[in-house]
Design goal:
single chain, mainly alpha, two-stranded parallel ribbon, 4 helices, 2 strands, 54% helix, flat
Length: 80
């Protein structure tokens, strides 16, 4: 569950993530390290792990509001 990962695809597709992405190298490195520990759910990156933990604590209506706010940041761009 890496969340946003900075790749060449994003630039080509002119996609901008609402959250800061991690490098593909860091994603692979952390995932391989966790796989060796027999982890089945891997969330690389401290900020994504924190966000995943927080979402379990917040009421659903608040999560919907926060998610909507993040997605609305994309509305200013042309959609194909």
């Amino acid at each position: 569950c890496p969340g946003p990962v900075d790749t060449g695809f994003n630039k080509t597709a002119e996609e901008v993530f609402a959250l800061k992405g991690i490098s593909a190298g860091k994603c692979v490195e952390e995932c391989l390290r966790q796989m060796k520990k027999k982890k089945t759910i891997i969330i690389p990156g401290r900020s994504m792990r924190m966000a995943a933990s927080l979402q379990k604590l917040l009421p659903a209506h608040l999560m919907v509001k926060l998610t909507g706010k993040q997605q609305k940041k994309k509305l200013g761009r042309e959609v194909m």
